[in-house]
Amino acid sequence: MPGSGFYSTSLTFSPWGSTENSGDKNHQLNFNNDGIFYRNAYPLDSQWGGWGQLLMTDANGNTRIGSMIVKKNPGTNDSHIYFGDLVAVSGQPSSKICFGGYGIQNAGFVWIPNSSLDKGKLLLSFGGSDGVIGNEAKVTFQSNGHVGIGTTNPKNELDVKGTIHSQEVKVDMKDWSDFVFKKEYNLPTLEEVEKHIAEKGHLENIPNEEEVLRNGINLGEMNAKLLQKIEELTLYMIEMKKENVEMKNRLIKLESK
Q1: Which value, in Å, is the radius of gyration of the alpha carbons in the chain?
Q2: Who's near 247: CB < 8 A, 6+ residues apart?
Q3: Cα 109 from Cα 100, distance rounded (Å)
Q4: N or C: which end of the chain has fewer CB within 10 A?
Q5: Is the pLDDT score of 86 beyond 80?
Q6: For the segment 112-168, what is each residue's pLDDT rounded down to a tens digit?
Q7: pTM (2 decimals)?
């Protein structure tokens, strides 16, 4: 018999008798400690079909389907669908669908379909308090498509509060720094570079420390700016090489006289 307990009771409905199958199936209910179960079969079948558990609603309005519980908060329109133990569910704000863990406070998966504060938010948390109440969700999916890892309020398509470890990162760029090598590029003189450093405390077109600490950096943009400075430095080195060769030739001529 299905369910658990020392005793169970079955109720069989056999409206068409047991001599033929033309009158459709017979039906059977079983009552035990785990609830009400149902199965059916044709009269001439060698055995009944498998048991299936029916919906159970208690006096508080909670509905149980196997290990799934639909929890209704008294006096509110909030409800929760919870897969697991029914612990610490009452009084939680807004509706949720929760999976895993032990009670909603430690649910591994929380979806908030409708709330004035967190409409459409999907939270993944692994231990600790409920993602919205304790702000301890590990992954947050917002209705606007933003995803947060380590943060419940992502401002971009992907916000990560912590370290990203990757074998490779590809950044799409709109332009690059090779314009430095074009003839029309106005290469600053070293005197101009020195003056800018003395006045500003950083290289031209490179953000200073205050800006970086406040706004962070765009990896693609910063790589392009750093390459620009490397290419400018390369041009300075080429020019210095030419000047050194010219001075060396002059010394050779002077020594040969």
Answers
A1: 37
A2: none
A3: 7
A4: C
A5: no
A6: 554 554 555 666 655 444 444 444 567 888 878 899 988 888 999 999 999 999 999
A7: 0.53
Give the list of residues 6+ apart from residue 104 with CB closer than 8 angstroms, or none. Answer: 80, 82, 87, 88, 89, 92, 96, 98, 110, 130
Are the C-beta atoms of 134 and 126 separated by less than 8 Å?
A: no
Token reading at 100: 């895993």
* DSSP per-residue string spanning 5-71: SS--EEEEE-TT-SS-STT--EEEEEEETTEEEEEEE-TT-SS----EEPPEE-TTS-EEETTEEEE
Q: Are strands 147-149 and 79-83 parallel, antiparallel or unpaired?
A: unpaired
CB-based burial of residue 37 (10 Å sphere; 0-12 exposed, 13-18 middle, 19+ buried)?
buried
End-to-end CA distance of the chain: 118
Cβ 126 vs Cβ 120: under 8 Å: no
Q: What count of other Cβ atoms lies within 10 Å of the Cβ of residue 181?
A: 12
DSSP-derived 3-state class of residue 149: strand
